[in-house]
Amino acid sequence: MKTITVDLDATPSERSYPIHIGSAILSQIELIMTHLPRKRVAIVTNTTVAPLYLERLRSALEKQDVASVPIILPDGEEYKNWQTLNLIFDALLTNRCERGTPVIALGGGVVGDLAGFAAATYLRGVPFIQYPTTLLAQVDSSVGGKTGINHPLGKNMIGAFYQPRAVVADSTTLETLPERELRAGIAEIIKYGLIRDSIFLAWIERNMTKLLARDPEVLIEAIYRSCRNKAEVVEADEHESGVRALLNLGHTFGHAIENALGYGTWLHGEAVAAGTILAAELSRRMGMISQVDVERIRSIYVQAGLPVAAPDLGPEKYIDLMGLDKKVAEGKMRFILLQQIGEAVVHSGVPAEALAETLLECTAHA
Ligand SMILES: NC(=O)c1ccc[n+]([C@@H]2O[C@H](COP(=O)([O-])OP(=O)(O)OC[C@H]3O[C@@H](n4cnc5c(N)ncnc54)[C@H](O)[C@@H]3O)[C@@H](O)[C@H]2O)c1
Ligand SMILES: O=C(O)C(=O)C[C@@H](O)[C@H](O)[C@H](O)COP(=O)(O)O
Ligand SMILES: [Zn+2]
């Protein structure tokens, strides 16, 4: 097992927390035992993950005399909303969960974002622990404390920064993950390489076949190097007043795609992949990277079996949706662009013509 610490505030800090990454660690309750003094937890999961892993976690807790309240949500991005959040509050209240009752998220990013937001707001905050079970959640969403829900008008528009007390990423849970979901997780792994770690990007290119084949060692290495990158960014800028925005590469376009097509039609990772190609094309039009760079980026996503052509929604629709992006400041859109492969920047001066040209020339009819 490997452990990374996310150091928050001046260290040592009570808010700092470990990310444990390893094989078959779901049942190792000693990893979270210090957070369970009251011997009772609520586990938020969904109808797909519950039959696979809920009993394993519950019985491991039971062996340590920890009782658990299961809260099983409907599965899907289209359920990342107020109504589902309220199901969590209903269950927490009905079961008389207290301020000292931790909420555990067992599932992918949707469960994690919902459960984290519930933990941030229930009784004004209860302890939160992440057990991510998708590749995307293990490399990205379980770390860093972004929690929240979608709004019909925009992705993740309502939420809170709320850090977990611990993250336990059991790589063996990825054995049951559908192929399409595995590929979607790889999109966020590629992101770290593109924004700040060109050595990791070259490693991903060399190891893509093994990643797709779920080679256990390669998976653990990819999760570890991704989490190390994410932890460093979050430590530097927890609340996204600066460098954390770079983790949004491809997301300004990607979130517009997810919203326009209907939440869940394209997976988050798929929208980020196609969105990153648009960001790369825009970077080239801004004179920042070369055509050769764009083709290298495109071929990495192709290798991963991810979409590289964003849907043709028309420039107006994209621009309208992107106007609600959380990075908009004083009414001005800000884009994450590539200065070079391995170095991203926040750009607030993208000319309207360059954006329109990119959207016209680089999107495709579905
Ligand atoms: N908070 C953050 O920092 C952050 C970062 C990235 C993405 N996100 C959010 O995360 C969400 C996407 O997360 P995701 O890609 O994990 O999708 P997801 O949570 O929808 O999970 C994908 C699918 O896999 C199923 N599943 C989960 N674990 C499984 C397993 N081990 N075996 C079989 N099936 C399994 C789920 O039930 C679901 O059907 C989006 O809402 C996105 O906005 C948040
Ligand atoms: O942790 C972050 O910061 C990220 O931006 C990670 C992204 O992969 C993730 O999709 C995040 O939820 C997007 O955040 P948002 O603030 O644009 O909703
Ligand atoms: Zn993302």
From TrEMBL:
Domain 3-dehydroquinate synthase C-terminal: 185-328
Lineage of producing organism: Bacteria, Pseudomonadati, Pseudomonadota, Betaproteobacteria, Nitrosomonadales
Natural source organism: Nitrosospira lacus
Gene Ontology CC entries for this record: cytoplasm
Alphabetized UniProt keyword annotations: Amino-acid biosynthesis, Aromatic amino acid biosynthesis, Cobalt, Cytoplasm, Lyase, Metal-binding, NAD, Nucleotide-binding, Zinc
Subcellular location(s) per record: Cytoplasm
Stated name of the protein: 3-dehydroquinate synthase
Reaction(s) the record says it catalyses: 7-phospho-2-dehydro-3-deoxy-D-arabino-heptonate = 3-dehydroquinate + phosphate
Family: Belongs to the sugar phosphate cyclases superfamily. Dehydroquinate synthase family.
Chain ranges of the 3-dehydroquinate synthase N-terminal domain: 71-183
Top-level enzyme category: lyase
Keyword NADP: no
Positions of Zn(2+) binding: E188, H251, H268
